[in-house]
Amino acid sequence: RGPVPLRMRAVPLGVRHLLLLTEDRAEARRVEAARRDFVVNASHELKTPVGALALLGDAVAEAADDAEAVKRFAERIQVESQRLAALVRDILELSRVQSEGAFEAAEEVDVAAVVSEAVDRSRTTASARGITLESSGPAATVLGDHRMLVTAVRNLLDNAVTYSDPGTRVAVATSVDRQGGTVDIAVVDQGIGIPASAQARVFERFYRVDPARARDTGGTGLGLSIVKHVVADHGGEVTLWSEPGHGSTFTIHLPLPPALERGATTTDPEG
Ligand code: ADP
Hints:
The relative contact order is 0.11. This protein has helices at 15-62, 67-98, 111-128, 146-162, 196-199, 211-216, 223-233, 258-266, and strands at residues 107-110, 132-136, 141-144, 169-177, 182-189, 237-243, 247-255. Residues 262-271 have low confidence and may be disordered. It is α+β, with helices and mostly antiparallel strands. A hairpin with a 3-residue loop joins strand 6 and strand 7 (247-255). The protein is 54% helix and 17% strand. The protein is built from eight helices and seven strands. The longest helix is centred in the N-terminal third of the chain and has 48 residues, at 15-62. Residues 159-160, 163, 189, 191-194, 202, 207-210, 214, 219-225, 248 line the site of adenosine-5'-diphosphate. One of its GO terms (cellular component) is plasma membrane. Its EC number is 2.7.13.3. It catalyses: ATP + protein L-histidine = ADP + protein N-phospho-L-histidine. Keywords: ATP-binding, Cell membrane, Kinase, Membrane, Nucleotide-binding, Phosphoprotein, Transferase, Two-component regulatory system.
């Protein structure tokens, strides 16, 4: 007789096991509900540009002889397709960072390289809007995924630039908090700020403080959810300080790699 399949064996379950199983099931149900919500919300968000494109297509067909009108509709088609492309990009990015094991193996990541890549990518948009970008801080290393961290810092920078006025500054300041055991990347702007009542909600998927303004600026409402997930995947957290009318500071706190913490103690002359 071959081995008895596991599920057919009479495995005595202790109360603890049972509780764990119930918790697992509750967690699985929560995850499933969140996934369903996401699909519903994402479909709803996608319907807006898709619907607009369909109407604009009809409008172009009807205005065929009116070159001016065709041009106007064509411009709106460009805007709506860019919006659709941004939504698809962010939905894919979010579902990637939400899935377990978003990156296979953590590698040593040079934080200064992450920041300079993110700053370089945001520079054109910033200068087009008359905003100065700066970065500062000591060399630091964390464990994780370079590309995902660039995406996170870049999303914070894009927001800082989008929600700031021309002539202001956006700064990325890196620092090492040895006591707290973290490497901190702060993105500081002097922009419109976020009302206290909205601060807890900005990390929710598709949440926007001012939906009309966000639509004009091409926001998808997913940027900060992506940041939150990337940072959580790295064992860190994101904090927010903001004062309406004065600006916002989003700070990514990443764990200092254990080897570096040890290194810091051995080079300490007192220690
Ligand atoms: P979006 O693509 O709309 O920018 P996010 O998830 O990145 O989506 O941000 C959610 C909302 O939080 C934004 O719509 C905006 O209202 C607000 N927000 C994010 N970053 C900033 C900032 N630096 N200054 C002011 N408001 C911000």
